[in-house]
Design goal:
Elements (H helix, E strand, L loop, with lengths): L4 H5 L3 E4 L7 E5 L6 H5 L2 H4 L4 E5 L3 E3 L2 E3 L3 E3 L2 E2 L1 H21 L7 E6 L1 H12 L6 E5 L18 E7 L7 H13 L3 E7 L7 H14 L1
Parallel strand pairs: 2-3, 2-8, 8-9, 9-10, 10-11
Antiparallel strand pairs: 1-3, 4-5, 6-7
């Protein structure tokens, strides 16, 4: 993958270095949000962590997204694959530009941001192998992830009454991640499409063990 400064400059993003011994949190916003909104969540998870928060480069009726969709919950899987490749390239470019070396990178995404994080981890585990997915779902439609994921660690946090991340898709996500050998933890809480205080507590605890 290209890791040039030119490629990195094509991505509007925020970067704060944090403590060198803490992980770098790749903060991925949801539909209609932006990198500044999601970056503010990082300090609630680990105040020492570095922050890398890119902006989704797809627009839907003026709202920022990470990939195209045909309808609510019906993703353009070819675009998911394409955009996950682009995000993997951004991560490589950021590692090079900011001198991150082998520092741990943990993607933290909400909704559409969780979905692109999961897709990138499933398709490019050599680039991203740790994900905290708030209100995410299976991102690859009827396809399966091609990679083996024995070194990947995924935390999935979902509401049991979330119409935007339905139970069937979340169940498929868990099944595919387990089939591919990832270490997966799931937190299922009452409620819908949001990040609750219990979600944050679970994410902080997971990050302490896996970040």
């Amino acid at each position: 993958m290209t890791t040039s400064t030119t490629e990195l400059a094509a991505w509007p993003h925020l970067h704060t270095p944090g403590h060198e011994d803490a992980p770098m949190l790749l903060m991925l916003h949801g539909t209609g949000s932006n990198e500044r909104d999601i970056a503010s969540l990082a300090s609630a998870l680990d105040p020492d962590a570095g922050v890398l928060a890119p902006r989704g480069r797809v627009q839907e009726h003026g709202m920022l997204r990470w990939f195209r969709r045909h309808a609510e919950g019906v993703f353009d899987v070819d675009d998911v694959i394409h955009r996950s490749r682009e995000l993997a390239g951004f991560i490589d470019a950021a590692r090079d530009h900011y001198g991150l070396g082998d520092r741990k990178m943990v993607a933290v995404g909400f909704s559409n941001g969780a979905n692109i994080a999961l897709a990138t981890a499933m398709l490019h585990p050599e680039v991203l192998d740790r994900v905290i997915a708030f209100s995410g779902m299976y991102p690859l439609g009827e396809r399966t992830g091609p990679a083996a994921l024995p070194g990947s660690h995924i935390l999935a946090l979902n509401g049991d009454a979330d119409p935007m991340a339905p139970e069937a898709s979340v169940t498929k996500l868990m099944g595919e991640l387990n089939r591919q050998g990832a270490t997966v933890e799931q937190v299922l809480r009452p409620g819908g499409h949001r990040i609750g205080s219990n979600d944050l507590n679970a994410a902080r605890n997971w990050l302490t063990r896996n970040g």
